[in-house]
TrEMBL record:
The lineage of its organism: Archaea, Methanobacteriati, Methanobacteriota, Stenosarchaea group, Halobacteria. Residues 39-215 form the Helicase ATP-binding domain. One of its GO terms (biological process) is DNA repair. PROSITE patterns: HELICASE_ATP_BIND_1, HELICASE_CTER. SUPFAM superfamilies: P-loop containing nucleoside triphosphate hydrolases. This is ATP-dependent helicase Lhr and Lhr-like helicase.
Amino acid sequence: MTDGVTAGEAAFTALGEDVRSALSERGFSTPTEPQRLAIPPLASGKDGLVIAPTGTGKTETAMLPVFDQLAREERFGIGALYVTPLRALNRDMRQRLDWWGETLDLRIDVRHGDTTDYQRQKQANDPPDVLVTTPETIQAMLTGSKLRTALADVEHLIIDEVHELAASKRGAQLTVAMERVQELSGPFQRIGLSATVGDPEEVGRFLTGGEDCEIIEVDVGSRLDVNVVQPSVTEADQRLASELVTDAEVASHVRYIADLIEANESVLLFVNTRQTAEALGSRFKELGTNIGVHHGSLSKEARIDVEDAFKDGELDGLLCTSSMELGIDVGHVDHVIQYGSPRQVSRLLQRVGRAGHRRDLVSSGTVVTTHADDTLEGLAITRQAMDGDVEPAGIHDGSLDTVANQVAGLIMDNGEIPAMEAYEIITRAYPFRDLTVDQFEQVVREMGSNRVIWIDEEEDTLEKRQGTWQYFYQNLSMIPDEATYDVEDVASGNQIGTLDEKFVVNFATPGEVFIQRGEMWRITEIDEEEETVTVSPIEDPAGEVPSWVGQEIPVPPDVAREVGELRRVAGGQLQGGASTERVAKDLETRYDAEAPTITAGLEQLEKHEHALPTDEDVVVEMRGREAVVNACFGHKINETLGRTLSALLGQRAGSTVAMEVDPYRIELELPKGISGADAVEILETTDPDHVEAIIELSLKNSDALKFKLAQVAAKFGTLKRWRGKGSTSFGRDRLASALEDTPIYDEAVREVFHEDLAVEATKEVLRDIQDGTVGLETVGDRTPIGLGGKSASRELLSPEHADASVIQTVRERIQDDRVILFCLHCQDWQRTTKVSRVRDQPDCPDCGSTRIAALNPWADEVVSAVKSGDKDEEQEKMTQRAYRSASLVQTHGKKAVIALAARGVGPHNAARIINKLREDEDEFYRDILAQEREYARTKSFWG
């Protein structure tokens, strides 16, 4: 008898006869590796965290021991809760578990937000043995009297995709819900199913509330076969580029991926953003590739259609975002393609881990990279994945709005509850283990003042009041309440997807073209009341791609530092005289890529003649008003460092400092009177312990914090319902002022810090710079590496030119806008007029001067500032702005008026647009459009 069969028998003999018989009937003669390792401890009743790739039988691993226990017992209520983060997973679980239920005479049911009242009533009167549900639905179940009786029989709770929930407020809410269930049922077995994470013990504690947990982990890295490829451009790609309305480089990516899809039977093609999914999907459609598009902004019906088509073999490939990382069943996948760096080791493991698995086959995948940074990053991530170096899940600790939500939940459970009992239940949940009594009291008092709960001071109890019920059912979910617009086809009336509100507000106008579901659509109407965008299909393959907020996957510091290490080793060899071919050959021994790809990744280093930014050296390059801090620390540290620099430089200049960040650079646009040397001085002298206070102060007036405040306030019941479009900037300013020194403000700041920043790690970086552990060098020019950042490159998949109708829409809108023309010579004449009516060279009808400032129609205060002659700081800035505007109009005439009339384009940016010396009027408007979009994208960060 082989070792494998012995191990299999050992696993399955831990189960009862009925289950073993069902296994034989189902054809399960040999368990998968997770089943071999996990079934014995789970069958003995231990809490367990099972870490393995999708498709390796994790669901059965958890459920076979649970079924075995349930089949042996009689009960009235629910014996097991199976919690999934997505409704789509509910559907999958039901389909996969039904056979077992029928065979073992166990009833399995599903409950989520769309479950009918009839089904809910049936479940309450005659509870199933196993209920598949979502975190939010458990919240509602805990308040029903019949369901509370049913929950008293819970003996097992299984959380699928627990790594996904551990890093979110949804997960934090679920941990308290588990403690609330335990108040009814007593202790129960807890089982978590997870993709590979770097901190399994921490995720185990999240699952169990800090108690011991059996960690069962399958080594994924040794079962990966991943290749990194940066396709080279061929003559055929040059021809293909014109057919796809793109450049030869993108054409080479599309051609290479299409060949890979053709070479395999069933391929998942992952991209990092929805806009890339749509843009790449449209190129494949032009090419005639048999591939579907799948992402979260498509309608449920559209997603199910492509899932089923792929599963049935009708599609050769499925182009998807993180929507397909979780375990939605789409049948067998034999290869996974990742377009662009996956940004994180865990994502590569989750995505490529979906391939193979017919009896533990190797998972095969290809990372197709697009430029030098991307290639080095892809090499680093693949190497770390093979070696099992995975970033932690990042538990979402201590969210105060979740505490508020669960206080209301506990009161709904009980009618009233002693305050300290509520505190003890909440702090049993792992994310709230460090919640202080003082913090809890502040939260409770805030809720009391919002009339959400009643506080009985004498009895020290928390009680239900009229507003509790309404608050609780409006806040079953901890997902922020953000508006989304339905996208409807004007011809058929069918919904084709959704758009984020910020995209609609900042970018969408009638006439604009964008891509969704791989097809081109022109916006015909936007209805803000109904939150719908009506569109019509077009055939023109050029267009703008939808933009979603907060999509960029942050590159962790360990990945960025390995890219820095690669630069240091390879760059040092190149600068020492070694040939690129020799360096690439050396790197082939460590990284899974062929020499041409590694050579493409070294392109920046070949041309770099200055000090190298590496994992051990920060290089600041300066030219004019541009400064780039080249720092290989990853997104969050660079964001924190960048905000610190921006705040302190802005303080010195008395004006805003624009900032752009990627994992390897912080790009700064410096105001007059500030140089790159000031940035160097700040890095060398700023006390690391002051970083947190500096950033919090800089956040105070930012739209980012105000937006977050409104969301958190809604979860506290301070705002009964909040929608972004219904809250003016003035209203948000008043809200921010009113909420200072409240737990709502504390939570909003904490959340911005948690999601976007890395304060402690940034302090360490500053200390390392200041004690010489990390070198700091300066370069008096721009370098190939410094120029490789975001602001120097365009979105690879966006068309080279925006659709002509979009440009025409911009032209018409600006020509129809109104401006104030104001004579700075006599300061008596001013006139508000449409841009279309402005003469080629405006002059003053009173004094004849051509020193005419062109100002936005709401800029009356600028005119007042000029006329008053006051010299306070704010009025002086407005006066200078007026004179810079007049100088542009005097030199460039109506062209300057047009640029200054655009959204978010002040004199400085208008000068940059005009100085490009565009002879083609369309190109001039394209530059304006690009600046408007840049302003819309970045304005939320600055007050």
